[in-house]
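Um, can you check?
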Amino acid sequence: QVQLVESGGGLVQPGGSLRLSCAASGFIFSFYDMSWYRQAPGKERELVATINSYGSITNYADSAKGRFTISRDNAKNTVYLQMNSLKPEDTAVYFCKAAHRSLNTKNYWGQGTQVTVSP
């Protein structure tokens, strides 16, 4: 059974930091590129950051560049999103997604974790 379980969300003041985790199970994690998405109320889900299956290539949305860092530990089947200098506009539900690195197969999504940035 495939599972992606996000954790680490919460309430933080502007300028603060959070580290999100996404623990994977039920598939070969090291074969999958991993991404973080977010969805704010009334808005479409948007890509925040991506890391390839080897952990050697990362990409970020412009809104995340310089503030967020995506990383992974294939030994722990976990992907992380370190978020620094948080802003109120970062408030959203954050989701992780797994996409096979070479096969056009079904993607896997987690249930999301809420991040709220507020004074």
Notes: The chain has a mean pLDDT of 97. The radius of gyration is 14 Å.
